[in-house]
Each structure stands twice: as structure tokens, then as C-alpha cells.
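Hey team,

Filing this mostly as a record. A colleague (T.K.) asked me to run one chain through the structure pipeline before their review meeting, and I want the input and output archived in the tracker in case anyone asks later how it was produced. No errors, nothing strange. Just documentation.

Input sequence:
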Amino acid sequence: RAIFAEAKALHVTGTGLSRPATAELTLDIVRAARRAGTAIVFDVDYRPVLWGLAAKGDGETRYQRSSDVTAVMRRLLPFVDLIVGTEEELCIAGGDDDVEKAIGALREESTATIVCKRGVHGCSVFVPGEAEQRFAGRPVEVLNVLGAGDAFLAGFLRGWLRGESLATSASWANANGALVVSRHGCAPAMATMDEIRWFLDQPDSRVAAQSTKLARLHRRAGRADDHLLLVLAFDHRLQFEEIADAAGASHDTIPQLKRWILEGFERVAQRMATSHCALLVDPIYGAPLLAEATSRGRTIGAPIEHAGSTPTQWIGEGSAYAQILARPARWFVKALFRMHPDDAATMRSAQLERLRELQSACDALGRDLMIEIVEPADKVFADGDLPRLIDDLSAEGIEPMWWKLPPLSASDWRDIERALDARESDAWIIVLGGGKPLEQLHDDFRVAAEFPRAAGFAVGRSVFGDAAAAYFAGTAGHDAVVDQVAERYGLLVEQWLAAMGDRS
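Output structure:
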């Protein structure tokens, strides 16, 4: 009862009336809510099978006339402010097989606003003393009808309870219902307001409902600040081999070093008051660590590029789609591309083909994508080069969850954000370390803190480089490696959090 004093509305369904005990309890609750001044929403939700009017398991039968059902529902009508149902549901509530006559009968019993759901044709709204108002639907390809009614009502209530116009409330309702039926799934398929607003702005609802833009909005919705990543990146392969070779050590010793690096990460992740610690680990030398980190619920990314390849090739055999499909769904995909805006046309074309394949696979499988951009062997980045490149790739439809970029000047940050804003991109930016000393990275973090798309860092050699050299040289054991990794990675996390303040 205390909740009713604060609630805007109480939502009850006809299913709650389908058994005598729950019917009486529903009516008692409705009376208590009414005394508290709470609005009452009646979702007719008629399912004959639950009233014993269809065979058990027959959920397909949506309408069966019954004067007994009508009589029970009518007990609720004097208390309600909003009645919502399909044509068949309003017929059972009103006690007539003709929907117009049924609505007239409901009006005799109630002063509620009545909403009639008409599927692809949208809905009609009946307000006491006013003519019927019809609001067109948004046609889409129907894949599944589960959850459509709940989605419709969620959209309508968002407007109705906030005092929006009936036209606005109905447009949100029709859009949310349409989006749910255009997707596989029930509650997880329902849209956010960002999705609904974007969908309503599109001229062709059928095309919009299946667009990659909408799929990305949906995948990223409701994830709060999951885009923030403070990554310890030790997915390197060639770099570890080169350090081992310089010390005359076997490549077989690399997995042990990576295990100790993971221990250093875990020491920091367990003590820091942040949920954003994340890992980049390769499936070549770090396969067992990927499994362990997954079992601990860590945020994990794994590279898909073949180390050192330009144009970028995939790490294993087969398409990007097949390789990503074989990975756990919660891993994000990371791919490194050596690119420059002044690359030759043939190189640009080859890289763009790979990027499109990768983007398409991640979109189809609903995987988060991180694209790392570094300098090609024969070029360096000057101010303005990275903004030009990111704008160019965005124009080609490449939109990862994160761009992983070298530390940027303030002007490059500003230009990249402007370019992404102009293209309505949802991408974030992760700062890579590039082997810089920690104090220089701290300065880079302070620059990044001024820009809204800054979403964290991915640093590797700056953390483990010295420890790796000592390990392969035989001068550093377990404790020395773990301590140094934990100390340096922990310092970077603290520096980022301090630079960002409340943002992280």
C-alpha cells in the first residue's frame, strides 16, 4: 500500500482475473490503489486457455466468447483509467463480437480512455466525449509476435503517464510493438527510446527495422557505462617472440610469462573499486588464460588479425564470421590495421575489403568490435592524419564499438569527435600505449579527459616490457614479474580514474 502512494499507475491484466482467488486479490489491490489516487491500467490480455476455454497447451486460440469472462472483467471496469486490448480482447471485455458495439458497452461501464490495438494498422484511441482517433502503424517484416503487446503498452504508457499527446503516445507504442515483432525474442527485443526515436525518423520502416544502425543501437542499449575499458593488452605475439629471441630464450616460455601477467592483472582487478578492468589476450600463446578469465567473468577481447600482416589477414583459417562465431559471445573482437590516409589505392581497397567483412560479421553476430589503427611501416602520422582516416572509414560504413588509436593531440581529438558526431556515429575511442613511459601516458590521459568519446586505454608494453625482458634474460622470476605488472597496471588505472573523475 505504501508503494501505491508513490506510483503513477498500477498495471493489471485480464490473466489475473482468470481464477477466482487471483480475481478477488486483483480487485482488492485495485481498490487500494484507487484509494491512494493511483491510475489503474487494465491490459485485457485475454487468453482463452488460461480461463479453461481451450485445450491445455492451446495458446494459439486468441478468442472464445464467454459471458462468464465478460462478467468477471466488468467488475474491474468502474475503477480503471486506461483499457488496452486487441479487437478480440475488447470484444470479450465488452461482451459483443462486434468490436464497435463492444467498445460502446465498455463506455457504458467506464470513463477510461480505451486503446484498441490493430496490428499493422496501428491503433485507435477512444476518449470519453470525443470521436475515435486513429494512429497509423509502422509496417515491418514480422519474424515473431511474442512480446508485441507488452512492448506496445510500454511505449504508450511512457507517453500517457508523462502527459504527452495521444499522437505521441501512440507513435511510441506502435514503434515499440513493430520493433519487437521484427526481431527474434520477447523482452530482450524491446526497444529503448533512442531506438524508437531513430526508427520513427526513418522514411522506410521496413528497411529501418532491419538496418545495422538499429541493430547497433539495440546491442549497445541499456549497458550503462560498459563502453569504458581499462585494458591490459598482452595479445602481442611477434613482440614477445622478438624479446625472447633477443635474450636467446625459447618461444615455449612465452605462455608462462603471459600467465604471470594475468596474475598481475588479477591482483589489480580484485582490489580496484572499478568494474572496467579488461584484458586483451591472444589465442596463440594465451588460449588457457582466455578460458580462465572467461570463467572469472572478466571483460575480454581477443585479436582476429594475423600478427604482422598488411593488408590485414585473419589469425586462423576461414572467414571472419566463422572464426568469430566459434568464440564465446561475450568476448569482444579486436583487429589491428596498419593504415594511413595517404595509402595507395590498392592498399586502401584491400584493407577496406577486410574491414567491411569484419564489420559485417560482428553486426550479424552481435559482437562488439575494437579496431586498432597504427602507422604502416613506411609512413608516420602527422596532426590531422588520423581524423582524416577515421572520417574516411566512417563514411564507408565502418563503425566499431571502439577505435583504438595512438595518443592524440587535443586538435586531433577535437577533429575526430566532430567527424564522428557529424556522421552520428556511436563509436568510442580507446587510447593505446605504444610502449610510452607511464608519465607520458599520464599526460595523454589528461588530454583525453577533455573529450566525451574517450572510453579508456589499452596498454601493454609500457606495463610488461621491462619485466618481459628480464624474464627472458633469466633475471626475473614469478614474484618480480607479477609485482611489476600489478604496480604499473594499477598506476595506469588510478591515473585514468583520476583524470576522468566522475566519468569513470
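Quick notes for T.K.: The chain has a mean pLDDT of 94. Residues 478-500 form the longest helix (23 residues).
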